[in-house]
Amino acid sequence: MISPESLRRYPYFAKISYPCLKAIAAISEERDFAAGERLLAEGEKADSLLILTKGEADLAYELQGGKRVIVGSLAPGALVAVSAVLEPNIHTTSAFARNNGSLIAIQARPLIELCEENFDVGYRLMTQVARALRSRLADVRVELAGAS
């Protein structure tokens, strides 16, 4: 569990009521990672929504033959593993740590249940997830334009 104040620093939770923030904090934990570590793998089950708190990460597709194509970069404050709150809850990209850092991991199933019980929380969170996805799509377009 982390403190609700730790979550309040991030815009995703800025307008969420304190009781709901406490509920989210209760299903959250901090995790450290090392440079080069795979934070998530394309095709695997997404069981936690992640917020990068320290360090940087790259989003990548892994192609046949082991080739890795970077399609975006993440800085502290970024949502990671957004597939955790989107069915079928399977990661669509991989993420690799550029350097040592940390993140907040929020258990997906209880978070989804909270969003289903409280539509205000669900709306605010899904709006932020949509913004993250829009930004990632723009990053992929830039990468594809540079590759041609």
Please outline the helices and strands:
Blueprint: H1 4-8, H2 18-26, E1 28-33, E2 38-40, E3 48-54, E4 57-62, E5 68-74, E6 79-80, E7 94-97, E8 101-107, H3 108-117, H4 119-147
Helix pairs in contact: 3-4
CATH class: Mainly Beta
H and E string:
HHEEEEEEEEHH
> Can you give the helix content as a percent range?
25-40%
Largest sheet: 4 strands, antiparallel
The CATH topology corresponds to Jelly Rolls
SS elements, strand count: 8
Instruction: Identify the overall geometry.
Output: globular
Total domain units: 1
Unreliably modeled segments: none
Number of helices: 4
Q: For the largest sheet, list the strands in their spatial order.
A: 1-8-3-6
Q: What would you say the CATH architecture is?
A: Sandwich
Overall pLDDT score: 92
- CATH homology group: Jelly Rolls
The portion of residues forming beta strands comes to 25-35%
Cα-based radius of gyration, to the nearest Å: 15 Å
User: Kindly, what is the distance between the CA atoms of the first and last residues, rounded to a whole number of angstroms?
Assistant: 46 Å
Structural class label: alpha+beta
